[in-house]
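Board notes (copied after class):
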Amino acid sequence: MPRLFIASDHRGFADKQRLLGMLGNSNVKDVYEIVDLGPTTLKPEDDFNDAAIAVARSVQTNPSSRGILICGSAHGIAIQANRFKGIRAICGYTPELVHLGRLHNDANVLCLSSDFMDDATMDRSVSMFLSAEFLPEERYIRRNARLDEENIY
C-alpha cells in the first residue's frame, strides 16, 4: 500500500492535525497508509526545513507514495522539498492548480498554506491531489525528466 506522508512546521500544525483527522475518517485510509512525520506537539521555534526534508526523503525512497506539507506560506517547504531528486512539490493554493500539477507535472508533494487557505479550499486541494492522475503524454514525461537533470545551469 502506498503511503501518504504528512508534516508541518508550527504555523501549519493545527491544519496538519485537522487534516489527519479528516483523512483518517475518509476512504483515503483504504488507499494510502497515512504517516504523520510530525511534529506531534506544537513547537513554536521549529523550522519548516525539517518537515520538508522528512517528507521529501520519505517520498523519494517510496516512489509510489505522496506527501503533504503545511507551513505559513507554502513557499519555504516547496523550495526545500524540490531540492531532492525525484520530488515534484507544488504549492496547492487552489484545487485547479493542484489538478494541473498532478496532470502535467506528476506532482508527488503538495504544499499548503495555513495563512492563505481556508479549511474548505485546503480540503478540496488535498482531495484533488489524491484523486487526480498524471497524464503520461510524451511532452510531460520529457519535461518532468528534465527537472532532475544535473549541472544544467
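Comment from the instructor: Residues 3-146 form a domain with the Ribose 5-phosphate Isomerase B; Chain: A, fold (CATH 3.40.1400.10). The chain has a mean pLDDT of 96.
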